[in-house]
Amino acid sequence: MLLLHGRVQKRLLARTGRESSLMLVLLCILLLAGCGSTPSPASAITLFTVPNSGSTPTGITTGPDGALWFTEEDAGKIGRITPQGKFTLFAVPGSDSLPLGITTGPDGALWFAENAGKIGRITPQGKLTQFALPTNSLPDAITTGPDGALWFAEASGKIGRITLQGKITQFAVPTPNSEPGSIIAGPDGALWFTENFSPGKIGRITTQGKITQFALPSSYGEPLDIASGPAGALWFTASTNNANAIGRITPLGKTTRFALPSSEGGPYGITAGRDGALWFTAFGSSGIGRITPQGKITQFTLPAPNSAPTAITAGPDGALWFTTNTAIGRLGTPA
Q1: Which residue has the higher pLDDT, 152 or 16?
Q2: Which of 30-34, 169-173, 183-187, 294-298 is predicted with the least confidence, judged by mean pLDDT?
Q3: How many CA atoms within 13 Å lie on the side-chain side of 3?
Q4: Binning pLDDT at 50, 70 and 90, where does residue 177 land?
Q5: What are phi and psi of 4, to 5 degrees?
């Protein structure tokens, strides 16, 4: 889905201390004690190790071909995995491509943000095209807009738009050094984005380029990823500064904060599930979380310690698929 640059991962890693075995033990105790019941039927987590080591899977999305497509930030590749776990990898030209966010475009291709200043496009058959952005552009996340174009968030303080033909328009965010990190099409016909170094703002931009910003209370920390949820609201993760919360914002700017259990460190990626709930990754505690529109939280521990899950998306098979530092994960009912 949509993802933030690796520097945010490193900052979260330093602050949450994911190497702590005590954190994992506490999480397991909470789960066994019934802190949030597991949905029925019982869910199962499977991890598929990416063939090339050190690749750092980052963004993930469901493709038009019934497979999952993901970016490999450090390896400079685009990956494809079938629901059965078969991998195909495609190299992105350029030694510093740094692919991050990825989404399915309206043209049946996959579009992705390269933090080295490019937007990439790859067909399900593997044909790849790159579009260079103006100097100092650092795109992190990308989504399909309601106008049939692709919209992307730039850590360089801009929101960008690119047509299917490659025409690029950029809009400067009013807050200096805001570093937008995630972007999604909202229920109101506009694009919504996070500003994770403001700190604490959610932005809205119309397809004509008009930007509105909503300042968050300090208790939210820095918003990271954002997703459209049920009942016409936007949901986002808030990490760093000990925030560890899930936030909800209406199109009118009204916010609600849901604090996570202390064991659920570093909420990161978020997506709407097909069950009407929001699903998120917990980078710091190597877990996956589920939150209902009413705020009830359920937690799932990954089978591999220190997995550091990041992006998450609803898969074509009804499961939730996510990226970790070495693998692609699936959370769903046993086949």
Answers
A1: 152
A2: 30-34
A3: 35
A4: confident
A5: -100, 160
Query: Token digits for 333?
Result: 């009912």
Residue at 123: amino acid letter: T
**Residue spans of beta strands (DSSP E) within 106-208:** 110-114, 118-122, 128-132, 139-144, 150-154, 158-162, 168-172, 180-185, 191-195, 201-205
Dmax (CA) for the chain in angstroms is 55
Handedness of CA 239, 160, 179, 247 (dihedral sign): negative
Give the 3-state secondary structure of residue 64. coil
Which sign, positive or negative, has the C-alpha torsion 29, 34, 37, 38?
positive
State pTM to two decimals: 0.88
Closest Cα partner for 268 from 147, 137, 141, 160? 141
- % pLDDT > 90, the chain: 71
Residue with tokens 């069950």: 275
CA-based nearest residue to 312, from 335, 280, 285, 289: 280
Q: Name 294's Cβ contacts closer than 8 Å, sequence gap at least 6.
A: none
Dist. CA 31–CA 23, nearest whole Å: 12
DSSP letters spanning 114-143: ETTTEEEEE-TT--EEEEEPPTT--EEEEE
User: Virtual CA dihedral for 146, 148, 150, 152, nearest 10 degrees?
Assistant: -20
H-type helices in the chain, by residue range?
Answer: 6-16, 21-32
Q: How far apart are CA 1 and CA 183, in angstroms?
A: 10
pLDDT of residue 21: 33
Q: How far apart are CA 314 and CA 232, in angstroms?
A: 18
Q: What CATH number belongs to 6-332?
A: 2.130.10.10
Indicate the pairing of strand 180-185 with strand 320-323: unpaired
